[in-house]
């Protein structure tokens, strides 16, 4: 009843192949129908994420509004999208199934509606395209963690984590970074995020405190692939499961898969920090070390000020030491990073 009185369609045996791509003119409703698994509970929390990928850009002041509803309950007040907001993920605050009258199991026609608000008469343009829409549960911390695989390469992946796409580095940036970097060369940053809730900082950067990024509904897809020049920080952000104990011992592992060779003495240094606590003194990587796995000595979570559960922004930081001025070359690529229990 929450979605009005209409005759439901009955059984849909396969996913629909096509969907409208945009709001345009007076056509400002995009509705997505689905069943929810019976395993979900009324107090489970969900989020909706979308991004817009184009606007009517030859307007005087391109803009388009969007609201998000679940079963006709407003879960996202109007966001006005401008050109600089394109390809940016927008995520609703978490809401419970009960709060939106969701029903679980086969038969129930749950509906997400994106409602467009057209500003054409005010010079905003007449259409806006949608790149994707996703419905996700609140992310739960996972452990162990991996960024990339031991494959001595940088294949394009999907889903982040072990399938992260490594892309060409772009330069330095302050914390907290962007948790939704595109899989495009020179558009990722120093900060890679696992799906999680980031509302509390543990470390401060050299500029002082930073504002945590909040909810990250899914693993970031892209990470920088290398140290280069003055760009010598690779930071990996994650929550830790509350089921761990602060006395648990863990390790950090990595391997390097290429170096700026052809120099007098190709080499690059690397140190490892967990929440700004050094857990690996400098290792100098030379060509003979490429493809070899390096692992820190085990350390307890308590010793690195780790915090458990959703909220805390735990950070592992690989810091490069550049020897270009001493004939060592100007870059070194990383194959993978692993954070896991001591075995």
Which descriptors apply to this entry?
343 residues, mainly beta, Jelly Rolls, seven-stranded mixed β-sheet, globular
The helix tally amounts to 0
CATH architecture term of the largest domain: Sandwich
- What is the alpha-carbon Rg in Å? 23 Å
Largest sheet: 7 strands, mixed
Number of strands: 24
Count up the domains. Answer: 2
Annotated CATH topology of the largest domain = Jelly Rolls
Oligomer status: single chain
Computed structural class: mainly beta
Order of helices and strands: EEEEEEEEEEEEEEEEEEEEEEEE
The end-to-end span amounts to: 55 Å
Indicate the percent of residues in helices: under 10%
Q: How would you sum up the global shape?
A: globular
| Unreliably modeled segments | none
CATH C-level of the largest domain: Mainly Beta
Percentage of residues in DSSP E strands: over 45%
Mean pLDDT across residues? 95
SSE inventory with pairings:
Layout: E1 22-24, E2 29-36, E3 45-55, E4 64-70, E5 73-81, E6 90-91, E7 95-96, E8 105-118, E9 127-137, E10 145-147, E11 165-167, E12 191-193, E13 196-201, E14 214-216, E15 222-224, E16 226-228, E17 233-240, E18 249-259, E19 268-274, E20 277-285, E21 294-295, E22 299-300, E23 309-322, E24 331-341
Parallel strand pairs: 11-15, 12-17, 13-23
Antiparallel strand pairs: 1-9, 2-8, 3-6, 3-7, 3-9, 4-5, 4-8, 10-24, 13-14, 16-24, 17-23, 18-21, 18-22, 18-24, 19-20, 19-23
Any overview of this molecule?
There is one protein chain. This protein is mainly β and 343 residues long. It folds into 2 domains: 22-136, Jelly Rolls (Sandwich); 145-341, Jelly Rolls (Sandwich). Helices cover 0% and strands 45% of the residues. The protein contains no helices and 24 strands. It has strands at 22-24, 29-36, 45-55, 64-70, 73-81, 90-91, 95-96, 105-118, 127-137, 145-147, 165-167, 191-193, 196-201, 214-216, 222-224, 226-228, 233-240, 249-259, 268-274, 277-285, 294-295, 299-300, 309-322, 331-341. Strands 12, 13, 14, 17, 19, 20 and 23 form a 7-stranded mixed beta sheet that branches. Strands 10, 16, 18, 21, 22 and 24 form a 6-stranded antiparallel beta sheet that branches. Strands 1, 3, 6, 7 and 9 form a 5-stranded antiparallel beta sheet that branches. The radius of gyration is 23 Å and the shape is globular. It starts with 21 loop residues before the first strand and ends with a strand. The model has no long low-confidence stretch (mean pLDDT 95).
